[in-house]
Amino acid sequence: MALPPHLRPLIIAGTPDAPHTLDIFLDYVCPYSAKLALTIDSVLVPLLGPGGEYHGKVKVIYRHQVQPWHASSTLVNEAGLAVARASPESFWPFSLRLFQAQNGYFDTPTANEAPEVTRGRLANLLETILPSAKKPFLDLVALKGGNGGNAVTDDLKYTIKFSRQNGVHVSPTVLWDGLIENKIESSFTEKDWKDFLGKRVIL
């Protein structure tokens, strides 16, 4: 699927020129998304990486799925996009760290928290991965004033529009070569992934 060049860090597994594409729509505050993300890291990343069985055949694109019934969803997904700009190599490690810490960004913990406080906590989370990325991150999420959003608002709009035009409503949702693949679930095991790829990829 198409991807703006500056969002190339969202390719989290495989090679950019791989003929097959898995678009995986995840929300950082969705427990099922967290489960799938951790499996992607432990199973798909090795399978699609150098020396993996499907290296050069399949790429995985992380798609931010903002779910507005969780008020913090906008802020955490905005943060992921900001990290992709501030420190491209930190995007996937930050995403995994945020999934592991997602309980702290659920509805109740953020209910009485100002957005700037939440953004500050997300910056501190990034700092545990790469301290030098904290200031660029904070600069990117700083509000411009009035109703102008911030430096990654356009990226957030892009991700939301992409989800809408593809009929994606919830996370996790997975597209295989542009079509929704309902067989893929958060409970997918290593065997399930190998079976799925084995039936669809011609080596």
From TrEMBL:
Residues 11-112 form the Thioredoxin-like fold domain. It comes from the Eukaryota. Gene3D superfamilies: Glutaredoxin. InterPro entries: Thioredoxin-like_fold, Thioredoxin-like_sf. CDD domains: DsbA_family (cd02972). This is Thioredoxin-like fold domain-containing protein.
